[in-house]
TrEMBL record:
Residues 262-331 form the DUF8061 domain. It comes from the Archaea. Signal peptide: none annotated. This is Radical SAM protein. GO terms for molecular function: catalytic activity; iron-sulfur cluster binding.
Length: 332
């Protein structure tokens, strides 16, 4: 891995803090934001909609976060939120809590100073596509030096639209510390505009764009010692899965099974709680909810098979704040 932030992300230890959904200066055709993130002022910590500062801390603790990745929006409102959350995280978790910011604007010296003073560690710039290859002598070169002067680690993070040698030049010149190239992806939020630009999905893939791992990008950029190519498969199979596992480990009950994908599996029954007590089920193997009982899934199967219960279901769900259910399997 190129940076501490990337190392933590690979371990599933990076909380994603989305602070703002408006981009006044940009209208990128490849912007992946969906309806719940595009042009909104809402803040999200991972999948959790933030209603108060305590939600951010709770989400970080839920996943034993090693650090935070901050993204979303450009206006001054986003800067005010970002500095507040940086200070909040550093106060709660200390200097070891690594933070990085992904931004599509240069920001200027005053903002770099404010971010640094608030506790930001890395800043990853995403220049507009129309500037690629023509950034030397512009504010995009200046901001790299300014950020470093203000105590930040400057870097680039770009989508793998095409190979661009100028990013390598900035690395070799020492202006930027590293460059992350994300595999070019389609999402619900951008696929129409992406298709209008002539891009299509890779055959048999849910998000990766055809040609986003072509030889030019891989050979010309990803072979550089300070470039990291982050594939969509790695994001799903490693980053996301490991984050779920960290959450599941923290919140699972004694009777929950944690799967290799980081989901939780348990049984759900609709008998009266007294039925479980009468059957001698140990208290640690079930819990009473408002209109059902959650129980170890294997115990539910045994009870239905033995005729002690009429029916139930085995539930698999994410350990996220919204508890999204992945699958329900009837047991009868």
């Amino acid at each position: 891995m190129i940076s501490k932030g990337c190392e933590q992300c690979a371990k599933g230890g990076k909380m994603v803090l989305f602070v703002y959904g408006y981009c006044d200066q940009r209208d990128c055709f490849y912007c992946p934001l969906g309806e719940n993130r595009k042009n909104v002022t809402d803040v999200y910590a991972n999948e959790r909609k933030v209603e108060s500062d305590s939600d951010v801390i709770e989400e970080a603790k839920r996943m034993s976060a090693l650090g935070t990745s901050i993204t979303g929006g450009e206006p001054q409102e986003a800067m005010a939120k970002t500095t507040r959350y940086l200070e909040l995280l550093k106060d709660e978790f200390g200097e070891d809590h690594h933070t990085h910011l992904y931004t599509g604007i240069t920001g200027g010296r005053e903002n770099m100073r404010r971010l640094s003073e608030a506790g930001l560690d890395e800043i990853r710039f995403h220049p507009p596509l129309e500037m690629w290859g023509d950034m030397h002598g512009t504010e995009w070169e200046d901001i790299l030096h300014i950020a470093r002067e203000e105590g930040l680690t400057p870097a680039f993070e770009i989508p793998g639209i095409r190979a661009e040698p100028e990013f390598l030049e900035f690395l070799d010149e020492g202006a930027a510390e590293f460059c992350n190239v994300n595999e070019f992806e389609m999402s619900d939020g951008n696929y129409r505009r992406m298709q209008e630009e002539g891009f299509e999905l890779q055959e048999g893939h849910m998000s990766a764009v055809e040609g986003s791992k072509d030889d030019a990008i891989l050979e010309e950029m990803a072979s550089h010692e300070k470039v990291y190519f982050c594939t969509s498969v790695f994001k799903d199979a490693a980053q996301h899965r490991n984050r779920l596992k960290r959450m599941a480990k923290n919140i699972c009950r004694e009777f929950d099974e944690v799967t290799d994908d980081g989901t939780l599996v348990y049984g759900k029954a609709f008998a009266e709680p007294e039925r479980f007590e009468a059957l001698g089920v140990p208290e640690e193997f079930y819990t009473v909810k408002s209109n059902h009982v959650e129980v170890a899934w294997w115990l539910l199967e045994e009870m239905v098979e033995d005729g002690d219960l009429d029916e139930g279901e085995i539930v698999e769900q994410y350990p996220t704040a919204d508890g999204t259910v992945v699958e329900r399997t009837p047991v009868a």
